Amino acid sequence: MESIVKGLELQRITQAELDDLYAQHKKLVQARRGGKKFQLNFKDASYLNLSRKELVSCEFIGSSLESAVLTSSSLSGSLFFGAKLTNASLRGCDLSTADLRGSDMSFADLENANLSRADIREGFILARDKDGNYVPIQHTQASFDGANLTGANLADARLGHAFGRGTTLRNANLHGAKLKDADLSGADLRGVILAGADLGGANLSGCVLHGANLAGANLDGAVLEGADLTAVNLREVDLSKAKTEGIVTALKIDTLDRSIQDIIKDHFAWVESLGAQGCQADLSRANLSGVDLSGVNLWAASFNLATLSNAKLNSAKLCMASLKVTLGHGTDFTDADLRGADFRGADLTGATFAHANLGWISLATGTINRWYANLSEARLLRCNFRTANLEGANLSRALLRGANLRGANLRKASLAGADLTGADLRGCSLEDADKRGTIGLNV
Hints:
Elements: E1 11-12, H1 15-29, E2 43-44, E3 123-128, E4 134-140, H2 260-272, E5 360-365, E6 368-372
Parallel strand pairs: 1-2
Antiparallel strand pairs: 3-4, 5-6
């Protein structure tokens, strides 16, 4: 099989030979006789299986791993210079600090992979000439075209122009990334973290950025035509030098079809009459920053993609309310009734849920009689949940770093894949909670 390095023929190896190479590598790691460093340079291992392997600082230079399975393998610090990884399964891989210069990762599955501080720029493949000197024989550009990077960590990665059209970066961490002049047009950027990133001159036309964090990002000369920036954190972002024709942003209160007071009044009539009168409140996409809705009955109201930063919702009745992908930095939900509320994908950094009820509610509807609060994949950094009721709540893959959970009730809650690094869990009840894959849980 020909490599991506033109004119260079790769040596095909079998699964048995690959397994033998790994067995020798394990002996080396364990300081046993017969050990040998794992090297797959200029080999064709396409379609083979290297999943769940410890391959730290190994070599895959110029190799073909097309459609190979490397799921959940530890590959930090490894050399993939000029490697072909198209359609490879790299889910959950640790590729931190890896050298991926010139590698082709088009259509690869990198969901939840760790590529922090990896080098993913362009590169040159070197080979020995007839005199034994190393000379560049092929220039290659690292590529993520069509790749799935959902939830991947690319913080401080050196990216060059690796991204292309059709890349899925949903909930990926690109904090501080250098993406100057990158073409991300049409990419799925929902929930992506681009805080402090350099997006100068980047093409973001047509992108959906619901719930993204662009705080402090540089967007000078960026193309945002037709992009959807609803519920996006744009703190300290200057859009004056960006191309913003056709941009979609949050709806201003004064552009709604009715006043907030009338919406609440009609919603109360709808609740009291069980739907016979009035109408359900729909405040989706509205900018409600700083609004005071303390104690208001908004049972089953819709706030999807709304901006609620610094809003007052203390003691509000929000049972069964839908708050998916809301932006609610510093929102006050103290003592609020949030049973069965849906916060999936919301960014609620610094919000207060002290003494709030985020437990389940019993409703005899169809085959489901218990509805649980859902905060899966929500950003709950530094949130205050002191003595809050979260019994049975879904907090899977939620970011709870630095959260105050003192005295909170998390019985039977799902914490699968959640990040609790630095969280205060003193007096917190975790009886029968699902803690599979939980990060930073020190109890």
